[in-house]
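pasting for the record
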Amino acid sequence: MKIGLFYEWPNPALRDWKRLFEEGIEQIQYAEDLGFDFVLIAEHHFSNYGMSPAPLLQAMAIAERTKRIRIGTAVLALPISPPLRLAEEIAVLDNLTDGRFFCGVGRGYQPHEFARFGVTVEESRERFNESLDVMLQAWSQDTSFTYNGRYVQVPEPTVVWPKPLQKPHPPLWVAGASAGTLQLAAERDIVPITSGFSGPEAISEATAQLLRFRRAAGRPVDTWELGAQTICHVAESTEAARALAGHARWQNRAGRSLTRLEVTDGRAAAAPYPGEPDDESFWEALFYGDPQRVTSKYLALNDAGATFASAWMMVGDIDHAQLMRSIRLMGEEVLPALHTAQPPRRLVDELLEREAAPNALAPGATPSD
């Protein structure tokens, strides 16, 4: 099981921007030394929920300060960016990082951000599909092409140079848990990454759907990749970790405020919201605790079908020194057990025999979510 870090660079107190970025890069350098496999960079705009509006620039800065760790996006929100420009910049980045880059893409989900780019949530899926089509053509075609979509047009014959170093393009990841996203991942052989917040059973169901779609698409079902996004902190004791859970709660509430359009002068209103988990339920969803508790929670995801996970440690206003300690404990005491873990061999048969959930999208149907 591969493990990486995830960054949005939240800034509740609007403290020094440069130091915030520097701390993240120092943490990533330390994680590389300790054997972490990758780092993911989100894309967010126009609020202190996350200071990652230029993930490709941030990826380049990380690459210049590291040597081995793979660097990816989680994710580039395709509906809000010109796909030809993205394809060019990703190709340059892939060459300059010597092929260490992988490209996570998604629809995005925040109406606060979409509105400021003149995009609606309702049109985001179609914009995503058209943008991805254009990017794949840009990377794979050595002759000029045009494109005439509903939202994306390339009216003039165009060829995109340079091509990525990795052929035909950097590995693609797609974010989402819906049946439509999992079907897209299976049919295009893209790696899906979904939330681990709902626990192993949700990962098990996502794996089952992915395998059914892979089988329908004629792809192997004895090998697959599926990732889980987790909010993680490792401390010397579970009690010490639990004392820091308020930072994760801020991050969760701030994200919901963007969805509810409760942002004033770029400051997310990180207030309680209707239906939010109570303290005990929220705690159980976190990958917080001593090394033993955290290890067992990741191994449960692996047993459910996750082949990698991202550890979202920089949440809220958590202190840099606490994050460095968490990374050290994770690297020294958790990673060794995870790096040797694989989903059990019996899992494929068990999941393919499972009856599809009522809301699952049958193979061959049209994705609508």
